[in-house]
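Researcher: Here's my situation. A collaborator sent me these components and asked whether they could plausibly form a single complex. I don't have experimental data yet, so a predicted model of the whole assembly would be a useful starting point for our discussion.
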Amino acid sequence: MSSISEAYQSTRNHTVEICKPLRTEDYIPQPVAFASPAKWHIAHTTWFFEEFVLSTYLPGYQRFDPDFAYLFNSYYNSIGERTLRAERGNLTRPGVDQVYAYRAHVDAHMLELLEGDTPDELREIVVLGINHEQQHQELLVTDIKYILGHNPTFPQYKAGASLVNGKNAQTGWLAIAEGIYDIGFSGNGFHFDNEIGAHKVYLHAFEISRSLVTNGEFIEFIKAGAYQDFSLWLDEAWAWIQADDIKSPMYWHMIDGQWYQYTLDGLQKVNPLDALCHVSYYEAAAFAEWRGQRLPTEFEWEAASSQFDWGERWEWTNSAYLAYPNFKKVSGAIGEYNGKFMINQMVLRGASVATSNGHSRNTYRNFFHARDQWQFSGIRLAK
Amino acid sequence: MSSISEAYQSTRNHTVEICKPLRTEDYIPQPVAFASPAKWHIAHTTWFFEEFVLSTYLPGYQRFDPDFAYLFNSYYNSIGERTLRAERGNLTRPGVDQVYAYRAHVDAHMLELLEGDTPDELREIVVLGINHEQQHQELLVTDIKYILGHNPTFPQYKAGASLVNGKNAQTGWLAIAEGIYDIGFSGNGFHFDNEIGAHKVYLHAFEISRSLVTNGEFIEFIKAGAYQDFSLWLDEAWAWIQADDIKSPMYWHMIDGQWYQYTLDGLQKVNPLDALCHVSYYEAAAFAEWRGQRLPTEFEWEAASSQFDWGERWEWTNSAYLAYPNFKKVSGAIGEYNGKFMINQMVLRGASVATSNGHSRNTYRNFFHARDQWQFSGIRLAK
Amino acid sequence: MSSISEAYQSTRNHTVEICKPLRTEDYIPQPVAFASPAKWHIAHTTWFFEEFVLSTYLPGYQRFDPDFAYLFNSYYNSIGERTLRAERGNLTRPGVDQVYAYRAHVDAHMLELLEGDTPDELREIVVLGINHEQQHQELLVTDIKYILGHNPTFPQYKAGASLVNGKNAQTGWLAIAEGIYDIGFSGNGFHFDNEIGAHKVYLHAFEISRSLVTNGEFIEFIKAGAYQDFSLWLDEAWAWIQADDIKSPMYWHMIDGQWYQYTLDGLQKVNPLDALCHVSYYEAAAFAEWRGQRLPTEFEWEAASSQFDWGERWEWTNSAYLAYPNFKKVSGAIGEYNGKFMINQMVLRGASVATSNGHSRNTYRNFFHARDQWQFSGIRLAK
Amino acid sequence: MSSISEAYQSTRNHTVEICKPLRTEDYIPQPVAFASPAKWHIAHTTWFFEEFVLSTYLPGYQRFDPDFAYLFNSYYNSIGERTLRAERGNLTRPGVDQVYAYRAHVDAHMLELLEGDTPDELREIVVLGINHEQQHQELLVTDIKYILGHNPTFPQYKAGASLVNGKNAQTGWLAIAEGIYDIGFSGNGFHFDNEIGAHKVYLHAFEISRSLVTNGEFIEFIKAGAYQDFSLWLDEAWAWIQADDIKSPMYWHMIDGQWYQYTLDGLQKVNPLDALCHVSYYEAAAFAEWRGQRLPTEFEWEAASSQFDWGERWEWTNSAYLAYPNFKKVSGAIGEYNGKFMINQMVLRGASVATSNGHSRNTYRNFFHARDQWQFSGIRLAK
């Protein structure tokens, strides 16, 4: 069996693994526009292979159901589709069983296809599909947490799967010298279009923390009244705090004078030594301001990344998500992949406890809106 | 077995019957604030008996799960609860199985209780619970239709269950003489607090149609450009048409020059001879205006109701939902039943194809907002 | 000079009189959609005479400015116009001077026209225009109060013009016997289309208060915690209180433990003996509920109105604004006058301190939304 | 007379000059949250000197009116103030005359103060106030244009003041070599906190256009159907186009097959040879995408700026508005000046026809939201 086939199967299996603790009901809702239903994730990742691989490369392939292209396509951009996007949580049919049957159908044909010759072009699109599915695996975890974590009964997803623990093994500041650094992906492996185009960036001397901000440090920030002090916050961050009555990271609850947090293993006490997560960029920036320090840029982070531990928290940087000098949108639907989101989002670097194996590298550029808290996002300071 | 016990069981069984064609997924979503999830309906009707009957009348009764009072109580009125109301569709736990276990638990205890002595006070509250559940049965049908009918694949709920057919057996106008009429419930059977207090109403002579407006008549209205002619519409109706781009009754679709409608049996051609349904008060009033006629008041309707067929469509009247002269709110949570909705809603009289057996009478006052289309609501004209 | 001409002039002068204390700046804003700018009121009332009188009855009449029909016409119903409606406060041109020149132009031609023969049809439309302008005079006063009253510096409109004083001369309850009453306008004078069609209404015996609810009585209601007790409020009233953080009648401010209110004479202490005003229907209904009484229907009010003092507060009734039995919309633009608002508004009876002389009668039906507080609206109880 | 005094007077006079063509009415409205009333601009710039200069440096200074600090302070950040911000257009009092009296009062005291010794610290804050007022002068022009340009009668602000003309004197592409460039302000003159901190930036070789995109080029883009082709647009740009029905730059109107635009001199034909203005970042980015080119970064722009003409259009860059490496917020209210807006805005470089004399330099960083069109913003391409 070829390694591409193995990679395909292992990725596809991992998605199913993530969903195993779910009940049928859990696959359905879309509580906020940014968190898609589990059913949609598992169908959409399947649709990707049907649309971009099987329909093109497997002669005589018959689509499982022609409606599915319409229902599970996040790319086709029209008014109708946009309406549909916010309505994903209302689509009870096709059912979960049908969507798994769709997966099985596509998997069988994919494996048939991958047993034969796999020209470079085909391998490339399959690898893209695998990485696409890995991205959705991470969203699956965080979207499931969002749904269960907003249930007043705080149901457990899986025993032992809290995912919020993690102590800093390193401490202190790392000094990086002024100079020209090579930034961006330049190897042979897989990479997204947004990280390609190795280029030079001039960095002034800076220091970056070897450790992530801990829950305990953030509790000090809360105790100091930071959520009530507008001078620490960006103008629109302050509006967000007022409008949504934000008083802590997402999933935190003050019960009888003690901070608790919802985890995938249920409600647990906040451990002051663990690395903080579920903060927005707004909160990360305010915390840095309060400390008299700052967030690193994505270039500083990348230049220094070989010298500290990372991989458990997505780390907010002080860089906006914009194109690298040589960025070029691919033509066609695949070209909609990353480029169209290059506005009003901030870059996160690293990876998180929800990131799939083999899906992280130090040139990876993740991006979310400044107010987003539902990822396992944390803070590393610079100065 | 006592008749109250039989009535209880038959009502409870009917709810389960309605849900039989549903898949687990169908129980979950709340696509709009006014349409609650099926899971919520079956749990909430159960909660009613647990809260108002078992907790009071069955000594030593243990609640199935203390959280359920919070999750499935539509009465407790606080900010928290209001937030929860719009979030019903995001509650995946307790699951459908648990909610049916809750039903079984409450049913077993209810039957135990009803086997013994049933003092009047107990019987009254059980009968209220039965009627409350019958109201939810109707909402179950219309909410299920809403969810399935907004799925782009138009899934069938049950073969043969379209519910939209229905021809007028009678025709022509019925003349009612001027005079004083007795209005409101005055018998011995069950009735809601809003229909009690028989009182006199003076009616001027009027004529009321023996037949309901048909699909064919409404198609004429559409063809005449009525949805584009503001002079036919109430001011806020016109705003609604513009904002929501309304062009037909709910569930109607123009396909290749022919009107189709989603029914519980899937997509079907609109039959011009069937009685129209799924129109808002706005549409009913505009149609009457276009005809140079008007809608009857709820008093005219009630006074004439023994002389025409009714029962397949809720019929919009030109009466606002307000208190009868002797209306008195019951104290406590039960008092929130009807009185608090007496503002900005219009009265519908009759009953519909989704109304449970034994749940209709000519003094029954149903009420919805003027824009609501999702009930099996139709039009009877007066002049 | 004919009496119609005198009536015209006196009405037109009164509008100018109301605006005299205004500065140019005060004519411009539209702080909420329901409160039109003073400039718009004085132009729109002028446009009415140009459009419906001069253009039809004065041969060779030249419009002052063709754009004005578009800018100051509240009737022409299209998407464009609706956008414009909320934008009235942004129209700085034509300026206040131009609008007064427009008034002068139309007045000169109206007086010329009214010097000659005035056939019945012409007189009727002129009288309608006069009454239309009187309605706007009342809105002018309340809209001016809204603008100045929401300025943090509480500017005075005119010394001695507070308009909120008024003691009840009568006390006690008036008993009205059961029977058939004639309701609606039946005389020869001016009346609106919504009050025409005298008809019989059967009333059960009831009692109605000779006095209006006072500020002092309402302060008791506040002190009793009524704004925090959901059981007193209609469901949507409670939502309104939560969303808008309502804690008192409009214009009331608690300063150093004492209730003050903004009046057209500036900020003043609330006098407990004065008749309450600036309450919504929601507040009126909750107050009645708290007292264990109710609001009268508009029919009860009219039947009893000759036996108590009224005229300083618009009084909320428990009747929805709907058509009388013989209501018939006039064809054409004039037909849009009242009928199109007959949904989701409540009837107020009486008149207020802001009502122009000669503009009140006991058959007059005013109507506002249940949440509206900015009129001089008060409470009379029934039981 | 000292030069600081002269600079003060000349700046203050220029503000008054800009407002001369306004009528009193024009000073009032705030048609959208981002466009403040002219009255507010002239009062707020005055308040700056009263608050930060006179109150501190002129012994015994008496404030003109204590309320003004509350009304015209854009800095004091509380819930109350935020409410007030959107309500600026409803504040009819203090009137325009009073606000000019406030100006005169502050000017008299400022000149008295500036006649004496002016220590460095005082001079610095006065120069900041002058530059602050110059910023507001530009906003005054564009906000006035917004108000008059959204009036359906398209009133003229001043004859000959259209401000939209401007031909490119240069053409062709300018090649800039790869290397390290010094970016940011490093001289002795005035500068804002956001441009300070000269630092090195590595630029790869690029070409930048010597000319701005013209109206004619943009008409080609429109004719090619670009506003209907989602593939050219950023994801949220496409949502903006759909939601707001955007079809052209702001102020453009298609009349009888010809493009017209509102100018401060009234409605005029669009001249294809003039430099385009009033486009959003979204439109600038889509235009570049359509051309197969891109927008320059702010660093590229600054590095090349000595070799092309600029100064008539603010030019959108592909850089987000973020802190320079050594950015440090000043403590106190002055510190709120720029830093708190460093999120979700894009940088514009250059200056515009509305920029005051002496207020432009090639290190100046202007910033607006990606959807903003109301500035004189244009497009310069890079590749």
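Model: Some features of this prediction you could bring to your collaborator: Residues 173-378 of chain B form a domain with the paralog of FGE (formylglycine-generating enzyme) fold (CATH 3.90.1580.10). The first strand of chain B starts at residue 173 and ends at 176.
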